[in-house]
Amino acid sequence: MPVKVKICGITTDDALQAAIAAGADFIGLVFYPPSPRHVSPQRAAALARAARGRAGVVALTVNATDEELAVIRETVRPDYLQAHGDESPERVAAIRELMGCPVIRAFRLKGPEDLGQVAAFAPRIAFPLFDAWHPQDDADALPGGMGRRFDWSWLKDHSGDFMLAGGLTPENVAEAVRLTGAPMVDVSSGVEKARGVKDPERIARFIATAKNAAG
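Request: output the structure for the sequence above.
Response:
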């Protein structure tokens, strides 16, 4: 099976069309104002309409309130909600109920022992997304999209569906898939020419490389 690919942090029509033309399975829309990839619900709704039926629409939030989630639900109607903050298993269950769609929970890994967190979430999520941990006291730090990777060998014995993120690029995604067996990969900064600005050529190369990586 070809690896499924998510291009996250889409903000423009050109980036969206580049991702879809290259065969992206998911596109990610970021609802987190500190991020350079943040989009308003209205802008996200237009992008989601253009993607509908061509790629899965993932709304990424960070410790969002019920009110913020309700706006996203009504305007964007995402196929998935990605919880990329500190949401507890109980909060994830409440988000799934409120949104009426599956939830992807992000886990920022400091070490292989952090994989143990997934079990408590497993009945409530579509699948986990594994990202790199980094200190949040850096003024420029974001929960994701920082271009940092973790030790992929931590995942060599992990079973079940998961999405791999964190520091992936067109140059290293084949190795990442080979080492982890990841059935899905997620990229944001690795396909940008400037922070928050997607590069269509890198998007196309990333997707082609990832989909050929599993042989």
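The helical segments are 13-22, 41-51, 66-75, 89-99, 118-121, 173-180, 200-213.
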